[in-house]
Every structure is written in C-alpha cells, then in structure tokens.
Amino acid sequence: MASSPIAPVQSLDDALRWLDRVDQAGSVRSSTDWKMGAVFEHLAQSIDMSLDGFPQPKSALFQQTAGTLAFSFFKWRGHMSHGLTEPIPGAPALTQQEAWKPGALRLRAAIARFQAHTGPLQPHFAYGALSRADYGLAHTFHIANHQDAIVVA
Fold first, then answer.
1. Which of 145, 108, 136, 109 is nearest to 30 (CA)?
2. Which of 25-34, 42-51, 125-134 is predicted least confidently?
3. Alpha-carbon gap, residue 145 to 86, rounded angstroms
4. Distance between CA 39 and CA 121 in Å, rounded?
5. Mean per-residue pLDDT of the chain
6. What are the b/e assignments for 92-107, b being 16+ CB within 10 Å?
7. Residue pair 70/126 in contact by the 8 Å Cβ criterion
8. What's the predicted TM-score (pTM) here?
9. Is the dihedral of CA 89, 1, 141, 60 positive or negative?
10. For the purposes of burial, counting CB atoms within 10 Å of the CB of 128, is it exposed (0-12), middle (13-18) or buried (19 or more)?
11. Secondary structure (H, E, C), the chain
12. How far apart are CA 46 and CA 55, in angstroms?
C-alpha cells in the first residue's frame, strides 16, 4: 500500500494540512491508472458537486436503500473504499496530466468553498440527502481513500 508522510486525513482541515505537505514534496504520484492531476480534480469535483448538484444521480430508490446503507457502513467503519479510478457519473472528463499543482489548488478551493458554504447542500449522487456533518465525513472519507493510493516522497 502506498504511504504518505502523515496519517490519513480525518477531517477537511487535515486534508488541507496534508495538501500543505504534498506541496512541499519532491515527488507526488498516483499508484492507480489516473495521473495526479486527475485524482485531485476528481476530489474537487465531488466537493463542488455537493454544492452545485451532481449531473447523474442514481434513482431515489437506490439512494434510499443501497446508497444509504453504503454510507451508513462507511460511517460505522470510519472510512470508505471504492474504485479509485471510477469517475463521478456524468462529471466532466478528468484531465489526465502529471502536473498536479493545478488540481491540488482546485481541491483546496473546493474545500474552502464547502467550509464557507451556509446554504443548502445538494443530494449526493449515490447516498442521497446528507447533513452538513455527514457531507464533511463523506468528503473526508473520499479524500482519505484516494490518499491510500498517493505516494508522496
């Protein structure tokens, strides 16, 4: 399993501190088929879509059954696992580039935007409606899951 210089993120503030460490690293790479720019872009898309809406949500029935169960399991377990090269359904195509700094900046901006947002949140494409606290957990779990496949040296 890939490692990073700090423990897995456990909050969005941890994610920002981890990005600080990534910015100082000599080398950052993904151990998946996605380039680093795409990984950070994907994470930012997910956060932005929690505010703006997901382009292709699963059915209400799916969200209220399998989606709710999946998130409840991840919450109980304290982390999530998912296909690390699965794009968000209907999301714009990811830029597959090694240059990761623009994606990391976009992720920082998305986290800051989410943290500052006081309006309603959009239903998650799979989990459905989430509270602000649960969305914060979902984003944290998502970042930590991808962090498992990022090598920072």
1. 145
2. 25-34
3. 13
4. 23
5. 93
6. eebeeeeebeebbebb
7. yes
8. 0.93
9. positive
10. middle
11. CCCCCCCCCCCHHHHHHHHHHHHHCCCEEECCCCCHHHHHHHHHHHHHHHHHCCCCCCCHHHHHHHHHHHHHHHHHHCCCCCCCCCCCCCCCCCCCCCCCHHHHHHHHHHHHHHHHCCCCCCCECCCECCCHHHHHHHHHHHHHHHHCCEEEC
12. 11
Give the pair of three-digit tokens for residue 23: 């910015």
Q: How many CA atoms lie within 13 A of 50 on its CB side?
A: 26
As given in the structure block, the two tokens for residue 133 are: 């606290």
